[in-house]
């Protein structure tokens, strides 16, 4: 059973491996050998290629050479592509999370969010990452059904079965001292 285990910025090596394997399967390219996960993703090239495989042309130009500014531009383009693709803003990492390696767990969360969003794109027939998101299950009720529901006290509301607060006392009684 899949579950997100990334809590409060803590890294989960198993989920990083799962995210890496998914990226490799989607792009058809292996991560550079010997490079840690966060270093391989740092320049944004792999992430931009991932988005272009999911939605061809969503990232216009991927900078493969140049200075830090060009590589940071890749991360910015990647994030814009994620928003266009439908990834919720709350699931996106900040560029500095990856660039400065401050919060690699947030990067993994973003990759899993892309994997969930891919389910919503019927044109994508490749590998999936994570569970399928739930869909709307809209129901229509008649006026009679709605009225009948108003008369029922749900079990979530509980019951007091005649309970009262008689006999309860909490803490010490209040002492009022005059003249001080």
From TrEMBL:
It holds the Pfam family CH. GO terms for cellular component: actin cytoskeleton. InterPro entries: Calponin-like (IPR050606), Calponin_repeat (IPR000557), CH_dom (IPR001715), CH_dom_sf (IPR036872), SM22_calponin (IPR003096). Residues 13-118 form the Calponin-homology (CH) domain. GO terms for biological process: actin filament organization. One of its GO terms (molecular function) is actin filament binding. SMART domains: CH. Belongs to the calponin family. This is Transgelin. It comes from Tenebrio molitor. The lineage of its organism: Eukaryota, Metazoa, Ecdysozoa, Arthropoda, Hexapoda.
């Amino acid at each position: 059973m899949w579950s997100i285990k990334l809590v409060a910025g803590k890294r989960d090596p198993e989920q990083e491996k799962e995210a890496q394997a998914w990226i490799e399967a989607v792009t058809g390219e292996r991560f550079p050998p010997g490079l840690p996960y966060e270093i391989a993703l740092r320049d944004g090239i792999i992430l931009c290629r991932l988005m272009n495989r999911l939605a061809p042309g969503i990232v216009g130009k991927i900078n493969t050479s140049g200075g830090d500014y060009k590589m940071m531009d890749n991360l910015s383009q990647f994030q814009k592509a994620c928003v266009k693709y439908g990834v919720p803003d709350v699931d996106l990492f900040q560029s500095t999370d990856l660039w400065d390696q401050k919060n690699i767990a947030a990067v993994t969360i973003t990759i899993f969010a892309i994997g969930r969003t891919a389910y919503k794109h019927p044109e994508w027939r490749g590998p999936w990452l994570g569970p399928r998101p739930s869909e709307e299950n809209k129901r229509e009720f008649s006026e009679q059904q709605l009225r009948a529901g108003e008369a029922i006290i749900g079990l979530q509301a509980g019951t007091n079965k005649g309970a009262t607060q008689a006999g309860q006392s909490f803490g010490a009684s209040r002492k009022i001292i005059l003249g001080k």
